[in-house]
């Protein structure tokens, strides 16, 4: 017996798991290494070439150690927020194994020739009420579910994420409902770290100018690390600082990056806006919702769902979809029934005409009714031959059509006419 698998082992998304499914990352988790280098390398240079020389530059002899300690603690905070952002479930909605059957509906579709065929229809959107306003949500073909409001499907992670903001390649993870708070804190703390390193590096150049009675240019030549750190932090501030300001605006207006870029030109009324203070409280002071997924749980065997109950609108669909006799055999049966009806009708009419003429009439010719009756023996043969092979079914269908054509001819009213004193038989085709 094969060992049971856990959810993360059969996960259909593009995520990567480590430590037995305890940590979840995006498919581009390797970009985290670049982000770590961009943070750690400048901080190490700062601690070695700048902060170390400022340990004894203040009135209190050892107070300069605070600069080194603050830099280390600040860096640790940034790395911890980065880890919380990239290694946790951003708000993934578990995908369904079946479409929601309660949303199925059956409609008649023109199948050609005026024939209405029942067809299974599935609505791609539906309306929900949010804060007294109607919001249209879409159906996700991949996850087979209706996305909740503000949810979107990430094409990189291949998951539907609640309150989807964007997929950040620098953290290698989607940003959604459960990690947006940590993402903003990471970006804002990285901004503050850049400002801190830039400021202390500039202060160190000033200390060298004051202590050695030199110029700024000479101090910069004697401490190139400070110059490099200032240039690096200045450039980084354009990115992380600008990102922090942009997300402050989004939080204040209760928008996501996805909504801002997609619906900016639509001038839609934001039904989620609770006011600036309420929006900030929603992001930073509400409890983070627990994950909808237990990645370490064992996969449960899927229970077969009962068939959808048949409604009066579905009777025709049930007849079409059921395991019925092949269409060739049905056509042959219909042809046999029509043939027998026509035979019975012609024989009865001939008998009635003979009785009406009296017993003095000449005996009628029974060869044609006999030949008609002989056709009755051919139909079962055709039907039995139709069941032998697919090739014989097609051939039998052609014979059945010929039999139907013959039956239409024999179904024409037969009657007796008299020409002079000699009764004759004549037929009129319908």
Automatic annotation (TrEMBL):
GO terms for cellular component: endoplasmic reticulum; Golgi apparatus. One of its GO terms (biological process) is protein targeting to membrane. It holds the Pfam family DHHC. It is found in: Endomembrane system. It is an enzyme of class 2 (transferase). PANTHER family: PALMITOYLTRANSFERASE APP (PTHR22883:SF43), ZINC FINGER DHHC DOMAIN CONTAINING PROTEIN (PTHR22883). Belongs to the DHHC palmitoyltransferase family. This is S-acyltransferase. It comes from Arachis hypogaea. The lineage of its organism: Eukaryota, Viridiplantae, Streptophyta, Embryophyta, Tracheophyta.
């Amino acid at each position: 017996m094969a060992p049971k698998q856990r959810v993360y082992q059969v996960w259909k998304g593009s995520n990567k798991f480590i430590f037995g499914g305890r940590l979840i990352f995006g498919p581009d988790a390797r970009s985290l290494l670049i982000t770590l280098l961009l943070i750690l390398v400048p901080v190490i240079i700062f601690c070695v070439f700048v902060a170390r020389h400022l340990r004894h530059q203040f009135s209190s002899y050892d107070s300069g150690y605070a600069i080194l300690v603050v830099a280390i603690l600040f860096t640790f905070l940034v790395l911890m927020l980065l880890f919380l952002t990239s290694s946790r479930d951003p708000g993934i909605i578990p995908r369904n194994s079946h479409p929601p059957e309660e949303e199925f509906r059956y409609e008649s579709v023109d199948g050609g020739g005026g024939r209405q065929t029942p067809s299974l229809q599935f609505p791609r959107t539906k309306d929900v009420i949010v804060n007294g306003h109607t919001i249209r949500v879409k159906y996700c073909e991949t996850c087979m579910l209706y996305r909740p409001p503000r949810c979107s499907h990430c094409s990189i992670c291949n998951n539907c994420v609640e309150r989807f903001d964007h997929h950040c390649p620098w953290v290698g993870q989607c940003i959604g409902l459960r990690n947006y708070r940590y993402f903003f804190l990471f970006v804002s703390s990285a901004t503050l770290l850049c400002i801190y390193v830039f400021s202390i590096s500039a202060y160190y150049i000033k200390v060298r100018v004051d202590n050695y009675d030199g110029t700024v240019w000479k101090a910069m030549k004697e401490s190139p690390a400070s110059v490099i750190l200032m240039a690096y932090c200045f450039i980084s501030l354009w990115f992380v600082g600008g990102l922090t300001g942009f997300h402050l605006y989004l939080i204040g207006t209760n928008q996501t990056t996805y909504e801002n870029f997609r619906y900016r030109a639509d001038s839609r009324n934001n039904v989620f806006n609770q006011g600036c203070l309420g929006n900030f409280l929603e992001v930073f002071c509400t409890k983070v919702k627990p994950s909808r997924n237990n990645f370490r749980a064992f996969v449960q065997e899927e229970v077969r769902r009962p068939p959808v109950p048949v409604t009066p609108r579905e009777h025709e669909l049930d007849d079409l979809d059921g395991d019925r006799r092949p269409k060739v055999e049905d056509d042959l049966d219909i042809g046999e029934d029509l043939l027998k009806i026509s035979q019975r009708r012609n024989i009865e009419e001939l008998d009635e005409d003979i009785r009406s003429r009296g017993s003095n009439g000449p005996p009628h010719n029974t060869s044609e009714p006999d030949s008609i009756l002989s056709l009755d023996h051919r139909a079962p043969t055709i039907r039995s031959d139709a069941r032998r092979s697919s090739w014989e079914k097609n051939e039998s269908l052609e014979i059945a059509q010929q039999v139907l054509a013959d039956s239409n001819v024999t179904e024409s009213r037969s009657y007796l006419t008299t020409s002079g004193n000699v009764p004759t038989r004549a037929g009129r085709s319908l």
